[in-house]
Amino acid sequence: MRCIWRGYAMIKIALPKGRLGLKVYSLFEEAGYKFEGMTEKTRRLVFENEELEMMCFWVKPYDVPVYVERGTADIGACGKDILMERKPDIYELADLNAGQCTIAVAGKNDFSDDASRTLRIATEFPNITREYYRRKGRMADIIPLRGSVEIAPVLGLSDVIVDIVETGATLRENNLRVIETICSISARLVANKSSYQFKREEITQIMRRVTG
């Protein structure tokens, strides 16, 4: 197959691997942007549609803004949590209304905050957490972790956690509860700033069809 992905006119799309990416891809597919093999069990990561002059590729969710910011992708989709945490220099175009959940503070069922001492918080989102407690004026010791943060208060590493909550099942299974909600999040369509300037018509059409 003729490789055309380096062509200037081709629209390059970065999507996150996993459940969120599949939800977002279904929106693209329903809008008429289909890439053969995208949903098959395969090690392939890059897929082209020559007729549409578009290319779509899978990357780690946390890396989507990197590919978009550096122009390797013209547009992409990622969670609002990643945008809040990383603050990439890209345009946030639209809420895709996929993967709705919340970022919340959670702790053990019997947790009671003692404002006289520093609150220990384990999280995958240190920047979001730091800003949230700064606004509250609360002393906070932020402990960055990568995955399975629910175990931190159970084992005494932290008093609470800040994490994404979808159904709350994992919290309940570990005798934790939501203490307060920081914000609601969902998947967002994002664009490289230069690409949006030079391919605005194409990107706007994609946005309208995908969010329509």
Question: Descriptors for this entry?
Answer:
five-stranded mixed beta sheet; 30% helix; elongated; single chain; 11 strands; six-stranded mixed beta sheet; D-Maltodextrin-Binding Protein, domain 2; 212 residues
CATH level 1 name of the largest domain: Alpha Beta
CATH fold type of the largest domain = D-Maltodextrin-Binding Protein, domain 2
CATH architecture of the largest domain: 3-Layer(aba) Sandwich
Would you count the extended β strands for me?
Answer: 11
Radius of gyration: 20 Å
Structure class = alpha/beta
Describe the structure in your own words.
This protein has 212 residues and is of the alpha/beta class. It has 2 domains: 11-99 and 186-211, Periplasmic binding protein-like II (D-Maltodextrin-Binding Protein, domain 2); 101-185, D-Maltodextrin-Binding Protein, domain 2 (3-Layer(aba) Sandwich). It has helices spanning 19-30, 64-69, 80-86, 126-136, 151-154, 169-173, 193-198, 200-211, and strands at 11-16, 46-49, 54-59, 75-79, 91-95, 101-108, 119-123, 140-144, 160-165, 176-185, 187-191.
Write a brief structural summary.
The protein is α/β, with parallel strands linked by helices. The chain has two domains: 11-99 and 186-211, D-Maltodextrin-Binding Protein, domain 2, CATH 3.40.190; 101-185, D-Maltodextrin-Binding Protein, domain 2 (3-Layer(aba) Sandwich), CATH 3.40.190.10. The chain is 30% helix and 31% strand.
